[in-house]
């Protein structure tokens, strides 16, 4: 187990540097990092040259990347356009997005897996068909349309929720945004659980469990569900990173000042420090989530052992 | 001679009885009566995966409906003037945000442009982005992934790490970073971006699929007979490894259309003179309280298009991979 974790951690190193380098190149080579520093005007050449040497932008790109990474590992993510430390921005933004992501994941787990179990056990029945069609529709309607429609109906027409959330939103304010963020993944979780349950329902161990007279509930929860959850856990694990990155659309619709909002502002104002910093953290979250998923396998399925 | 031929087959095949068609019809007649008397092939020859899948698809209502919808979308994206006579860019501010009226069934958008015409012309953008991006992703992904699976070794190791790198980048985020510096209002930067970030998905699938196909006996036999690498790849592995790629690519086509709209909604996909559902939805979002029709029509068109491609992919997967049913 220990050796496996170490090997996985070592494998994560090139992926981490590759991804951050790619984002670094996208931001610094394709965009102009100092364009945002003179407001809406064009920087005059002398100022531009001075800013370039001040930020080390006259050095070759690989050197800039190494300097940046060196700073990151000492906890210095640079300064945003308004003089705020990027770490400060992260301190306010990440708790909000983490709350939103937790709401979304809870929706995925509770609704997605329950619907998946129900439909997987009743394949071909009307419930199954209805839910399948619903999931297809949810997958087909893009998140920003779902979000706008829910905002229109629940927030504006019926007044059940407030159309946008406060600066430091609580969990109950984030219920609808969380549902919107989760919607597409929720549909995938449902379909995945359904397929997995339906496949395992014919397995020998399920027949044995039924034959030895276990109550149906116990068969489903302890035997069937536990064995069917592995692909679902994989999906949800990899989805955590995608949810945090994809929150950009949901946060924009409901005006939530989380990671997506800060990133959007950073990109809009061409503030490379903010963008690269936030993306670096998101990549770390994504890698960590993948590692945790792999370790969870052993908990769900004792047959899997790590050498 | 494969003599027994039903009349409808003769019609569907066009030139019935012409000697050149016989080879082609062999598969069809076998399919109609498997194991029946047949002079040319061995009796009871199993149907190929493709003819089997085709037989399933023809009976699947989901497949028929979604392909009809897609056919319709493709036709109006090539000839939008067939059903919309107006100009999608013609604007009259006096009409701004007006609802439905005769001759303008969907009403007008914030600039006073006809929503119906814009929805019809927007089809072209979405279908072009979807088809081009999918072709690019499928080609690049299956070539890179297929070669990695076939040759293994260091190229495989590099490619696997490379796909990990690309998977680590959240798509919408990457789109914002990558496309915010582009000023062109054509679809090509968006297509390029989707290909850049989409190929690893297909590459992984193609790699796995080629590795499975490579271990089959007939490939080993071909190798033993001295077949060259390219012959083994083209004749033996590709036809047997391509099914998963096709399935995933079809479903991905729908999600790429949705992605283009999302990026346009965020203001980095297509830019205004271009006609795109994403742009229209984004513009309408500010007026959603007073004039929701400006949002609902393009959003509905987008949803139907994406749904059609996803359903088609679903049907094709069911047909090609009976295990999943």
TrEMBL record, chain B:
The keyword Cell membrane applies. It is a multi-pass membrane protein. It is found in: Cell membrane. Residues 123-313 form the ABC transmembrane type-1 domain. Residues 1-47 are annotated as: Disordered. Keywords: Cell membrane, Membrane, Transmembrane, Transmembrane helix, Transport. Its main location: membrane. It comes from the Bacteria. The chain crosses the membrane at residues 62-83, 127-150, 162-181, 241-259, 295-316. Pfam families: BPD_transp_1, OppC_N. The keyword Phosphoprotein does not apply. PROSITE patterns: ABC_TM1. Belongs to the binding-protein-dependent transport system permease family. This is ABC transporter permease. It comes from Streptomyces sindenensis.
